[in-house]
Amino acid sequence: xxxxxxxxxxxxxxxxxxxRKKVAEVVNSVIRGTINEKISKEQEPESVKMALDNMGVIxxxxxxxxxxxxxxxxxxxxxxxxxxxxxxxxxxxSYGMDRCFEVVTPVISEEKDLSKLxxxxxxxxxxxxxxxxxxxxxxxxxxxxxxxxxKFIMGIYENQDYLIxxxxxxxxxxxxxxxxxxxxxxxxxxxxxxxxxxDILTVFTTKEDMYDYSNKDTKHRILGLNSLVAGHVEYRASxxxxxxxxxxxxxxxxxxxxxxTKNNSNSTIVFPTYEEVVVYGK
Length: 282
Description:
Layout: E1 4-16, H1 20-31, E2 34-40, H2 46-54, H3 61-69, E3 72-78, E4 82-86, E5 100-104, E6 108-110, H4 111-126, E7 136-142, H5 146-158, H6 160-167, H7 172-177, H8 183-190, H9 197-204, H10 216-219, E8 223-224, E9 232-239, H11 244-263
């Protein structure tokens, strides 16, 4: 499969139970490139610490000792493109302090690279990679036309109950990291003449904060909008998984909404009824 996708995508896969070094080796077994190890001295952001505390995630003194003082190994896997295996400070390492990871794909525009991701997920399963309630899976979607973004947001809103039921077990994560859109926001957006990304962002935040990449009003939504100026958005309301079938299904659903809202004059999407949804991971 060497065809082009209808848009560029990217994935972030959060997991645990396997060291980052081992995950890098798994990625490289598919990519067949070079593993470059680096040391990160980043510390857990205060915003993440507060969010996890508010979610009721219990972490002992050893956890904070690890997060605050230990140098963290991260990896670039360099082939035709660069894949990354990094630490994510929102993951609670329930299977060991050094056993939490995030796989970050490069920008994917071809089916052959998407196939590599599916193969990596199958191999992560074989080495017993797991997820817990602190893990998520994020999908980035390349989109650069403001009016398409407007319709895409509306399409996500119309189907967010379906998407949440299908891909989210831990709904406590939603309010903190992937807050669903509200009807009053969508009504305002629907009636707005959109000519640029700023017209969209000011529906969800202030003019002063709309270019703040860490702004939770635009970042921690079911569809993260904080990277709009970079030409992409991020679907955030999926639980962490290393199951290929789940990631494929998310890819198919989100790209379907993308294509339908790009090609049609309205944002109405027909998905299965709520009762017919296959709920993964339950």
